[in-house]
Amino acid sequence: MSFDFSKLLSVAWGGWTTTWPTQLLALIWLAWLASWVGASFWQGRTQKQVMTLESGRYRIPILVGGILFTPWTAEVLGEKPLWVFSNTGVYIVALIVLAGISFTWWGRLHLGQFWSNTITQKEDHRVIDTGPYGIVRHPIYTGLILGMLVTGIAVGTVTAMLGAILISLGMWQKGRMEEVFLSKELGEDAYGAYCRRVPMIIPFLSPR
């Protein structure tokens, strides 16, 4: 008995496109995910990283948030959107999400080989404080949080919005853990000074 992968793909794709306000948002996020995973091979050699058990402090809220964020959770709970955006509203949301995603890619490309999906110290690691890192200390998280929160609002279900909030909190926690780790590894004089100079997640706010 052969496995019909096309049927599984049809069910998965149908879930996203029938419960989200438009196929456009689903396409944007799927394209981002595919490109992000594909680029994961481009990174430098790791010298040191945070232990797996410690990383649970940010992985768990992101995982739970991700489950709540999916359309299947709303379907199982029989949940309906609290509101429905017009076509114009959806296009505005899509532009904001694209802006957030573009900011994540600007941050990743600017970081280059120092990027990692986990909290690590790479070979020859140094403080990067130019480009988007001169605006916020975690531009990748800034872009993702913006995109997730706006998408959750556009979807309009309580579970999607709660999922977006949990994912955002997980990213904020990961950012805090990164800063403690890098302050120890790169030195308080270097990374600590950077933290006192540049806002963490939200541009134009006071640092720290």
From TrEMBL:
Give me the segments passing through the membrane. 20-42, 82-106, 140-167
Q: InterPro entries of this UniProt entry?
A: ICMT_MeTrfase
Q: List localization entries.
A: Membrane
Q: Which domain of life is it from?
A: Bacteria
Keywords, ordered alphabetically: Membrane, Transmembrane, Transmembrane helix
- Record keyword Transmembrane present: yes
What's its membrane topology? Multi-pass membrane protein
Q: Does the keyword Transmembrane helix apply?
A: yes
Pfam families per the UniProt record, alphabetical? ICMT
Q: What residue stretch is flagged as signal peptide?
A: none
**Protein name per UniProt:** Protein-S-isoprenylcysteine O-methyltransferase Ste14
Ranked from the top, the taxonomy reads: Bacteria, Pseudomonadati, Pseudomonadota, Alphaproteobacteria, Hyphomicrobiales
